[in-house]
From TrEMBL:
Pfam families: CopD (PF05425). This is CopD family protein. The chain crosses the membrane at residues 12-31, 43-70, 90-111, 132-154. Residues 46-154 form the Copper resistance protein D domain. Keywords: Membrane, Transmembrane, Transmembrane helix.
Amino acid sequence: MFYSVLKFVHVLAVILWVGGMLFAHCFLRPAAAQLEPPVRLKLMVAVLGPFLNAVLASIVLILVSGAWMIGKMAKEAAQTGGSFFMPLSWTLMACGGLVMMAIFGHIRFALYKRLRAAVAASDWPLGGQTMAVIRLAVGVNLILGIVTLGVVFLV
């Protein structure tokens, strides 16, 4: 039962992260593009702040639940006298997730900080340039997230 709860938390956190990126990249961004730069950039700062904080919490849940599930399987294998070999799909999922986390860290702790400062200073050209880099990084992370999900379910 506990393993099922961990798996549920893990998948729910991934859904929040990947689904949020999909929504922001494919629906929010095109709609916001119709707004004037000051309004658009203020909106994106207001939306991204809470979203990035929610993703940070999701990442903690993903790491803790994933490590716990791997540890539980390894412990069960050892208790039965067997060896634990992590399935290829799990290894690929973990690697993809770690790359995504690194990209997220850059978005959250460098790019978003720069965007927020540009908007506070009403530096719309810098804000627009920073938003373009964030858009690219989110696009890369979205593709990695979808590929990682595909690996988990198809490999």
